[in-house]
């Protein structure tokens, strides 16, 4: 169940970060409120995931996959530029998260 909580924690964190961009610097009410709703929900779910997952792995997956998803959303939805360095960095994040998962229990 920890992994299910973690997946939803990541999705909520990504929704909260996307709401930050959509709020236009807290000038729009609904996205501004959603920042706090989604981040609060994300932290609750992350905390619940820690009942059965190692904190090092859960936090690395939460932050790493959240970062990779937000960068992808930035590129696809907000039309941010994708250069070789950005792409390589995203790949390294994913490799790092995978490496932490492979090292669990060793």
TrEMBL record:
Q: Which UniProt keywords apply?
A: Cell membrane, Membrane, Transmembrane, Transmembrane helix, Transport
Q: What is its main location?
A: membrane
Q: Which GO terms describe its molecular function?
A: transmembrane transporter activity
Bilayer-crossing regions: 26-50, 57-78, 84-104
Q: Does the keyword Transport apply?
A: yes
How would you describe this protein's topology in the membrane?
Multi-pass membrane protein
Known Pfam families for this protein?
Multi_Drug_Res
Q: Where in the cell is it found?
A: Cell membrane
Spell out the GO cellular component terms annotated for this protein, sorted alphabetically and separated by semicolons: plasma membrane
Protein name, entry field? Membrane transporter of cations and cationic drugs
């Amino acid at each position: 169940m920890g992994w299910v909580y973690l997946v939803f924690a990541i999705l909520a964190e990504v929704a909260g970060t996307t709401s930050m961009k959509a709020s236009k610097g807290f000038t729009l009410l609904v996205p501004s409120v959603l920042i706090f709703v989604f981040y609060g929900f994300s932290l609750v779910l992350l905390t619940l995931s820690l009942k059965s997952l190692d904190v090092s792995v859960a936090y690395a997956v939460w932050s790493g996959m959240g970062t990779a998803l937000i960068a992808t959303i930035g590129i696809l939805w907000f039309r941010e530029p994708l250069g070789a360095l950005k792409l390589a960095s995203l790949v390294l994040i994913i490799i790092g998260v995978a490496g932490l998962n492979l090292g669990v229990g060793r």
